[in-house]
Amino acid sequence: MLPLSSLFSFSSSSSSSSYRRFILRLQLHLHLHLRRSISSSPPPSQSPPPLPDLPLSHPIYTIWASNTGLGKTLVSTGLAAATLLSPSPSSESAKFVYIKPVQTGFPSDSDSAFVLRKFCQLALRRRRPSSAVSASNHVLQASASASEAVLGYGSEGEGELRDLGAYEERRLLGEEWAGGAASELICKTMYAWREAISPHLAAEKEGGAVPDNVLLEVLGRCLRTGSEDGEGR
Description:
By secondary structure, the chain is an alpha/beta fold. It is built from six helices and four strands, in the order ααβαβαββαα. Helix 2 (72-84) crosses helix 3. The longest helix has 25 residues, at 16-40. It is extended, with a radius of gyration of 28 Å.
């Protein structure tokens, strides 16, 4: 690379030929710098995976914040309660799907379990026996360490995610279930790791890294759980 000082070696009294030489030096300098930048830059990354194709008939809320303990899960619980427990002029049932794509610190820390528990507490305070509400929590996959903490025993396949399939369901506020008109709260954790650290670090330590395209595909299926029925609020 040419030093920048060599580009400005002419004075104000320089001839036009000196000025042309300066322009040529500048062009050469920029050309070499650009070639070096292109040759040293990493290859372009793959195109991002396509986003889930979802209907616009149901609202989707993304709750995020830059740190823990700021109330994201409480806000999510409030949205679920407002959707499912508020009086409605129609008799239609409603469905609310809460999704936690990646969870660390599991099972001692589980946002989907928290939403289920707090929602049930709010529902029981309403004491409206004419309204039927079903609430469930489902954890799809977890690391070997997290699965062992839930099941109480280890299994083969260290460093891989397990199909944990942990499921809990509660039925609240209503005795009439035959008509299938109960509103539903569906909580899901897609992937869980035991170490309470950043998800990418937990995946490196415990195994079971999830590619972006796989995560988006599973997220799309979970979101469609609440939108394919075409009924309710």
